């Protein structure tokens, strides 16, 4: 019984901290209306016997996105209609690579976007509160033939919905690595969309390119992302499994001491930076049991400590602070 009471107390404290973090940065806001343009449904509605006519209608309905889809994503010239018709007919009817089955699955899974749009709308309302001059992006949903999850367009972002059909979708094992499956779920789309938008609008401004500077940059953006999605657990924001997150928490002190002992914070070699920051099956500088991007995770933890010890610092001021050494020293980070 004591153990249950202790667990309830811990959960209450965690909930209270989350609520305080939310109230600290954002007032009650009306969600910024965000709707995904359903290019996927329009494209998949092309009929084999009228493909040329249907394709011409897509150019009329989606004058800005259709050329991007054809030229950049399909890699075909817009003016070669005959080749495009042949390619589209082949893609829609394909069974060898599973595209026909995948397209059907995509339409079933994405019939309802209400939850995705709700989360994305609230996140962009909070972004608009922090950055009133930022434009809310135009968001498109499309099918990519397993080529692209998030693609930047001139006025926004396009989401390859066929890259979010579930971690257990069988065809994924033929086209991606095991460690990538965790984020190939429909519920990952809001975080992926907002994360891409943040990293594109908050550029790296550090003068040096040490691991420390890159960790603080990524840690700041991850902290902001966690505030925008304050109802999500940290591992979902990070794109980890719960087991990966728990591994980092359990080994946090050992990770930090290893980084300090090796003086990796001040390294600038691309190999070291890639190991700590890039996605992968593990972080080779730490352990083969670790998840990838441990440097980003530690950077986020340091920024959390920094904000906890500097409660007058706003989110926008945090984003503008490019002195990584100052953040580290005034974070009093001691795992």
What does it look like?
By secondary structure, the protein is mainly alpha-helical. The protein has helices at 2-25, 39-44, 51-61, 65-73, 81-93, 99-109, 114-130, 189-201, 211-228, 234-238, 242-250, 252-261, 270-277, 294-309, 315-320, 324-329; strands at 36-38, 138-142, 150-152, 156-160. A four-stranded mixed sheet has the order 1-2-4-3. A hairpin with a 3-residue loop joins strand 3 (150-152) and strand 4. It starts with a helix and ends in a 6-residue tail after the last helix. The relative contact order is 0.09.
The chain-level structural class is mainly alpha
* Secondary structure tally: strands: 4
Head-to-tail CA distance between termini? 30 Å
Tally the helices: 16
Tell me the overall shape. Answer: globular
Q: Strand order, biggest sheet?
A: 1-2-4-3
Mind describing the biggest β-sheet? Answer: 4 strands, mixed
- Secondary structure: helix percent: 40-55%
pLDDT < 50 stretches = 1-20
The sequence of SSEs as H and E is: HEHHHHHHEEEHHHHHHHHH
Radius of gyration: 22 Å
Average pLDDT level: 90
Strand content: under 5%
Key attributes of the depicted protein:
single chain; 335 residues; mainly alpha; 4-stranded mixed sheet; 16 helices; 54% helix; disordered N terminus
Question: Could you outline the blueprint of secondary structure elements for this entry?
Answer:
Elements: H1 2-25, E1 36-38, H2 39-44, H3 51-61, H4 65-73, H5 81-93, H6 99-109, H7 114-130, E2 138-142, E3 150-152, E4 156-160, H8 189-201, H9 211-228, H10 234-238, H11 242-250, H12 252-261, H13 270-277, H14 294-309, H15 315-320, H16 324-329
Parallel strand pairs: 1-2, 2-4
Antiparallel strand pairs: 3-4
Helix pairs in contact: 7-8, 9-14
């Amino acid at each position: 019984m004591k153990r249950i009471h202790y667990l309830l107390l811990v959960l209450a404290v965690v909930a209270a901290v989350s609520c305080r973090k939310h109230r600290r940065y954002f007032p009650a806001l009306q969600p910024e209306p965000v709707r995904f343009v359903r290019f996927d449904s329009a494209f998949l509605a092309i009929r084999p016997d009228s493909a040329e006519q249907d394709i011409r209608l897509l150019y009329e309905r989606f004058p800005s996105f259709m050329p991007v889809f054809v030229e950049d994503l399909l890699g075909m010239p817009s003016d070669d209609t005959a080749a495009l018709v042949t390619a589209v007919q082949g893609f829609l009817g394909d069974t060898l690579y599973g595209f026909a089955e995948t397209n059907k699955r995509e339409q079933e899974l994405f019939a309802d976007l209400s939850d995705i749009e709700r989360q994305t709308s609230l996140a962009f309302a909070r972004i608009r509160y922090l950055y009133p001059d930022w434009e809310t992006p135009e968001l498109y949903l499309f099918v990519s033939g397993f080529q692209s999850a998030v693609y930047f367009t001139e006025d926004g972002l396009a989401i390859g919905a066929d890259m979010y059909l579930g971690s257990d979708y069988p065809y994924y094992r033929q086209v991606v690595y095991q460690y990538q499956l965790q984020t190939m779920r429909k519920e990952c789309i809001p975080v992926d969309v907002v994360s891409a938008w943040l990293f594109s609008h908050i550029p790296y401004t550090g003068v040096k390119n040490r691991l420390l500077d890159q960790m603080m940059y990524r840690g700041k953006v991850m902290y902001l992302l966690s505030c925008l999605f304050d109802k999500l657990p940290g591992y979902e924001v990070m794109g980890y499994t719960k087991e990966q997150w728990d591994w980092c928490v359990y080994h946090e002190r050992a990770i930090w001491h290893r980084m300090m002992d090796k003086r990796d914070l001040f390294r600038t070699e691309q190999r070291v930076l890639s190991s700590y920051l890039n996605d992968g099956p593990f972080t080779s500088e730490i352990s083969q049991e670790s998840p990838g991007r441990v440097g980003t995770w530690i950077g986020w933890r340091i920024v959390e400590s920094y904000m906890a010890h500097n409660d007058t610092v706003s989110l926008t001021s945090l984003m503008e602070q490019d002195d990584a050494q100052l953040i580290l020293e005034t974070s009093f980070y001691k795992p």
